[in-house]
Amino acid sequence: METDGIMSGEEKSYSSMSLKDVWKVYQSFGRTVVALKGINFEVPKGKLTCLVGPSGSGKTVIINMMAGYETPDGGQVLMDGKPVGGPGPERIVVYQETALLPWKTLMENTTFGPLMQKKISKKEAIKRAQALIDKSGLTGFEKKFPYQLSGGMQRRSELIRALINDPKVLLMDEPLRGLDAMTRQIMQDYVIKLYEETKTTMLFITSDIDEAIYLADTVYFLTQSPGFIKDKMEITLPRPRTSDVLITKEYNEFLAKAIDIVMAEKEFI
Ligand code: ADP
Ligand code: MG
User: Stretch 244-248: mean pLDDT, rounded?
Assistant: First the structure.
């Protein structure tokens, strides 16, 4: 364990989140679109929870409500048992789309958030950023601009940029989507490592069942639109988790069960 205060899980306190019978309805061109109908799930403190659902099932709507950018039309979004009133620095979202500022270097992008918020000194910000950069295999790239980084490096930079703010909950909306298979595998291992070293409460949203089982402590399954949680699986695969697990009988049993859950609604796809 490091003692830099960011990557160490020991001295930090994290939060839990939960959704209780959450509904979301949109008015679109005079029509009423039910995006979510009564969503219930938990993101327990210090656990990595995955939410799997097909495109259009309401995954981004859910994460935007948890971040506080949108409000539910029914039910409650809770953090440590209290309703989320709006955005807050303790809940950080990493989206699939890059949010790196193209005209700033990796170091400048990483320190940008804390310096804007004037939470810590520039010296402290640089020290924390360097620790995260080193941990993430990006040493030597501090002065590079985003376009000079590979796809995988850019995604790691996004995660570093989120973690430097010391979130109590890290919300990730399909952060690995669009990466080639090899980079994606490496990035999955990186997310697992970040989680296992920090034990930050994490919600990881994906449309990929394999990815969800590989990463998660618990997987929730969303139906086709309108989104509804139809099932849940506790993934009891051991940690630390490495890619060796992907060829085990246990992993493949989880996968087979998950495919059954998803295929049960194939007639609607
Ligand atoms: P996912 O992230 O799972 O692909 P989304 O959360 O983006 O799905 O969207 C879920 C549903 O909600 C879709 O049918 C989408 O069209 C609808 N929706 C999302 N945002 C809005 C909005 N601002 N206005 C109207 N409909 C919306
Ligand atoms: Mg989405």
Answer: 97
pLDDT for 225: 87
State what percent of residues in the chain have pLDDT above 90: 84
Helical spans, DSSP H, in 42-169 = 59-67, 106-116, 122-135, 151-163
Q: Which has the closest alpha carbon to 203: 8, 2, 14?
A: 14
- Exposure string (b/e) for 84-102, b if CB count within 10 Å is 16 or more? beeeeeebbbbbbeeebee
Mean pLDDT value of segment 133-146: 95
pTM of the entire predicted model: 0.92
Mean pLDDT of 1-24: 73
Ligand 1 nearest atom to the CA of residue 174, by list position: 2
60 lines ligand 1 (CB under 6 A): yes
Q: Is the shortest distance between the CB of 53 and ligand 1 below 6 Å?
A: yes
Interhelix angle for 151-163 vs 106-116, to 10°?
Answer: 20
Reading the block at residue 88, the tokens are 């807050």
Q: Which one of 23, 34, 36, 61 would you pick to mutate in the ligand 1 pocket, going by the greatest count of ligand atoms within 8 A of its CB?
A: 61
- Residues of the chain by 3-state class (helix, strand, coil), percent to 5: 35, 25, 40
Ligand 1 binding pocket includes 135 (Cβ within 6 Å):
no
**Is any atom of ligand 1 closer than 6 Å to the C-beta of 33?**
yes
pLDDT above 50 (res 1): no
Domains of the chain: 2-90+167-263 (3.40.50.300)
Ligand that lies nearest to the alpha carbon of residue 51, given by its number in the listed order:
1
